[in-house]
Amino acid sequence: GQVVYSITEETERGVSVGNIAKDFGIDAATLSDRKFRVITGSSKQYFNINASTGALSVNEPIDREQLCELKSACLLNYELVLENPLELYRMEFKVLDINDNSPGFPLSEYHINVPEFLSPGARFTLPNAQDLDEGTNSVQNYTLSPDEHFHLEMQTHGDGSKYPELVLKKALDREQQATHRLVLTAEDGGDPPKSSDVPVIVTVLDTNDNAPEFEHSIYRASILENSPNGTLVVQVHATDLDEGPNGEVRYSFSNATSADLQQMFLIHPHTGEVTVNGILAVQRPLLEMLIEARDNGAFGMSSTAKLLVEITDVNNHGPEITITSLSSPIPEDAVPGTVIALLSIMDKDPGENGKVTCQIPDNLPFRLKPSLENYYRLVTSGLLDRELISGYNITITATDLGSPPITTQKTLWVQISDVNDNPPVFSADTFDVVVEENNPLGAFLYQVSASDPDFGENGRVSYVLRNSTVAGSALASLLSVSLANGSIYAKCAFDFEQLRSFYFQVEAKDNGSPALSAAITVNVYISDQNDNAPAILYPTSQNGSVAVEVVPRLADEDYLVTKVVADDEDNAQNAWLSYHLAHSSDSTLFHLAPHSGELRTTRSMRSTDFLKHKVVVVVRDHGYPPLSSTVTVGILLADTLPQALPDFDDSGEPPPLLNATNIYLIVSLACVSCIFAAFLLFLAIVRL
Hints:
Layout: E1 2-8, E2 16-19, H1 20-24, E3 37-40, E4 47-49, E5 55-58, H2 64-68, E6 74-82, E7 87-96, E8 110-115, E9 123-125, E10 139-144, E11 150-156, E12 162-168, E13 179-188, E14 195-205, E15 213-214, E16 218-224, E17 232-235, E18 238-239, E19 249-253, H3 259-264, E20 265-267, E21 273-276, E22 286-295, E23 302-312, E24 320-326, E25 330-331, E26 339-346, E27 356-359, E28 366-370, E29 375-380, E30 391-400, E31 407-417, E32 425-426, E33 430-436, E34 444-447, E35 450-451, E36 461-465, E37 469-470, E38 473-474, H4 475-478, E39 479-481, E40 487-490, E41 501-510, E42 517-527, E43 535-538, E44 547-551, E45 560-563, E46 565-567, E47 577-584, E48 590-592, E49 598-601, E50 612-621, E51 628-637, H5 660-687
Parallel strand pairs: 1-7, 8-14, 16-23, 25-31, 33-42, 44-51
Antiparallel strand pairs: 2-5, 3-6, 4-5, 6-7, 9-12, 10-13, 11-12, 13-14, 15-18, 17-21, 19-22, 20-21, 22-23, 24-26, 26-29, 27-30, 28-29, 30-31, 32-35, 34-40, 36-41, 37-38, 39-40, 41-42, 43-46, 45-49, 47-50, 48-49, 50-51
């Protein structure tokens, strides 16, 4: 058996539920003897059995919601066990629900975010209320507080359960009302019914439907041109009625603003402060920029304002000198007015600060001539001479008309190229050269040198001999000259006695085109060497015979016997002659004048004097080393000229007792005698 009992929850303790003895047909008196016991899986003993009567009563009130939670049927199962005999009975208690719980919402309030761009009819799920009761005691109905934008509709799940939905019946505008506070009421079907409320806060999510708006459509500012970095120009401000990122405004320069202005100025993206960012290098006094204010919405909206910045000029730019064209080097024969360089001189300042005057030093053969606007031509104003000045450092000074003025200088180096306008120049018109005769072949005589102030090939000098003849011979057969250095060499040996002097011309020629030349006259003087012995002109001898002079037999003292006449082809002291007696048969009888060559008697002649005398005269020059010649003069003492001249091979003196031949004979005889005596002595010794 099994018996099912029904009991409402929260039944008080002791309330009778039934009688197991009657319900199961058991004798109540035997319950104790049969040791009955109740077995249950519950932790609590909700029921009590009277062992005497079998009455079943409530032992502890039952809270269905606690015991069975959300189960639709709440059942408690008990088993009754009896012994002697063993019997098992099942009891099932069906706990019936009462409306003891009000509906409840899990949260104290609910938030729903609704984009403002949604159209009417949009639906939003509302939270379900929970009611631990079951059946009609559970949640049966929902209501919503009145609102012009929302109403409530009930929907049914597939299992038949209902749930509330919030329906948009009028378009939202966050800028007019950002939050809607609604009250959702859940009501059960109990009697009396119970209900519960929960606030539903509808937050209208912003849609980026408003563009930022500037306070002013045009902003005006004025700053100095030399304002440093970070100088505040102006602060712009724009507002956006949207909220969150849609209402956050970022500032920037519009793409319509030129890139150079965007580099010169910086705008803070959050504060809208426009500051100087670099050098204000502009040529116009009024700058126009467009500033854009854009929100941070998904599809950012923007608006623009115009910023006009007036730049108050300060003379902070010096003139800039640019060499557009430069011709260097320039030839020294350039005519005045020749254009050397084209200059561009600019000043970035406007107005008077940008007007420039330009000049160069007055002491230069150049001047500046204005050309096109801001251009100048540098031209020659005088003659140039590279030999005097080979180049010029031209300092160009440009000064603007600002206050204070700013000056810029630039230096040009203009080199002067050479033109062959200078012939070679010798240091003198003529040169005198002295050369000794008998010079060796190829002997160096002299070196001529000419200078040419021109440069390079124009100044390189070569030397040649001008064609001429000397003593009937071509000059080229006598001399040669080095083409490179002007050294003059002898090609033959000169003879003073044949050619004492001559002159010729050396031409110096440069290598320019056309070549220029100059000539110099070289006077050559040949100096004498003592290379000629004196020549005796008188007295002369023929065929090697002795010249004879006849002197009166009794001639007086200082009688002129003869005069020796000699000549020397050399010159100067090499030709100065002196006369000397080298030999005289009677040294007491004659003497010779050393300068005139006169041979005279030293005393009067005597009758005892030999009739023949011979003297040897030496004629010597004064060269170094000295050279000499001799002449032998025979003197015959006679009053008349004899028909035949005697032989003067001997001097007329008695022959000497011992001459060389006699000496040789005597020596030979003595040697033979000695040898013979020695031989006799040897024989005597042998015999003994």
